[in-house]
Amino acid sequence: PHPLLMAVPDYSALCFYRTNADLCYMQDNIPVPDSKENLPYAYKTYEDVDEPIFDPSIHLDLDMPDHVKTLPRYTQAAKGKDGNLAYSKPFKFLSAKGLSVIRKIVERETPNVEPSRGSRIGIRGLYYSSPWVRDLHSCPQVLDHVSNIVGERVVITHNLPSAPHVNSSVPGAKGAAEFWHWDSIGFVGNFLISETQGLDGGDLEIIKKEKHAGMKALVEGTLGAEDIEKLSYEAPGKMVLAQGSEILHHVTPIKSLVKRTVVVFSFAPANVFKPDKMVLQTYIQEDKPLGNKSAVFEFFRGRAWVCGNALMGMTKIIPYTENGEILAARLRSVAEELTRCADLVAEKTNDAVGFFDESKGAYKEKFQLREH
User: Fold this and answer.
1) Which of 54, 197, 349, 360 is the most exposed place for a label (fewest CB within 10 A)?
2) Residue 28: its pLDDT value, please?
3) Where are the beta strands (DSSP E) in 44-137?
4) Dihedral over Cα of 315, 316, 322, 328: its sign
5) Distance CA 51, CA 361 (A)
């Protein structure tokens, strides 16, 4: 079979999700670890940094998108339903004051590192290093608003260094700013913080096909112009929400010498029995240029949180039965998920997702460049 179709598991087919698809239990946002020692992304509070205290009434300016497109046929709708969002039109997210605060924070946190994939550098760990960003990403109003547009309750990603992940283009670097790929987290909310004037290129493009079919068309060179849709961010501080895990997308080459900086918020379904689609290898690749391997610790915490909440949910929501077989199957499904994740954490197995490097016209699963 095509290497591509081998690369990505269908998460809903995993024993844990398949066995418990009839259950619904809402998890909270994952907490930061109690011990802040030795964290590669240093934990800071408002006492440690010069940041205003996040205030939704000052820093947010939330609005609904004009419309959204829904899966599987990219049909237009007012908003998503049952998590069928493909992507939204841009909608107001940050106020002018909020935009000004996050620009300063990103500038402060920008490291001098090599591009991690495409011609961009990744800035990570702001959930740890910026109390304002932490309060913004986990803000109940933000999560309510995003959940309303997506069409299902969401929480922040379990991978806290990606909450958010910031992509900054390297001006003058050749080639696609971002290769064709899909994401290793359910939903993303992207917004520009750099100015749009003088920017040539750097558009988000999506392939309006089921993701595997889209990748096959790319590999075989059969993609038509009508299969590709270009999305504009319109203005800094406006968010585009997308189910990046189900959509093949990339960023077009940036021709101008203007730096382009995009903040990427990441969200997972709040229902712990719905796949969050987290891929350990992706995060290992993203942390690499920053000189750490925190992805292993974060994946361990994320899966412990999911499985722990799953067990908690089972104790609360499963009605009385004397059918021990069915109850045993539920317990075993959690045990199997823990074993699957333990093998990934010990790196006995690999869950890499591929992407398509259009400059080489080739499908890649592993080199130093890999998916968010």
Assistant:
1) 197
2) 98
3) 68-70, 75-77, 85-88, 91-92, 120-123
4) negative
5) 45
